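Team,

Forwarding the record for the chain on the shared tracking sheet. I've put the sequence and predicted structure together so nobody has to dig through attachments.
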Amino acid sequence: MTAPEPSSTRRVTPALATGWSQRRPAAGREDGDRGSIGLLLALLTVGLMAMAGLVVDGGAALAARGRAADVSQQAARAGADALLPASLRTGTPDRLSVDPTAASAAAQQVLDAGGVTGQVTIAGDTVTVHTHVTRRTALLSAVGIDDVTGSASATATVLFGADAPDPEAARRAMDARQLDGRMGSPEEVAAGIAFLCSPQARFVNGSAFVMDGGMTAV
């Protein structure tokens, strides 16, 4: 008579029995991780929106300043061209003088045509125009900045014949105002015009394309 074989038993070690509970993170830690990631994503989103706003609306601010500079120069020249009729009949260039009423009206007409606000100041034979251009922001309005403003000023003086400054000195002064220390060439301006007329610029619409070497941006 043979003795019955002992039944096999499976031994469960304490490590296996409790392993799941040891590896499972606590519920409070999971919630803390989720909160940290959510806060990080919120900060990154705000930062990216701020950077995009600076790029997009910063470009709008530069365009506004360029527009203000362009219109102020045109208005100042128009004002300086409004001379007193009596001074034109004297025959002596040194007696040319600006008609204050006509000069102010001529400069204001240029401002109105350009849709720009500004102030016109006349002192003797000199006309100075200060302009302000406001543009609505596209992205910075989300942080309370609803618009950006560009301001500029220009002065025009009545000159005639020998009273005009030395052309070479005037050219050197203009060169010194440029970031590159030189005036733009006709080929560079023509290249910009060719781009605007090309199919590559078909999505460029309603924008000011300033080609002044960055003079109005500083």
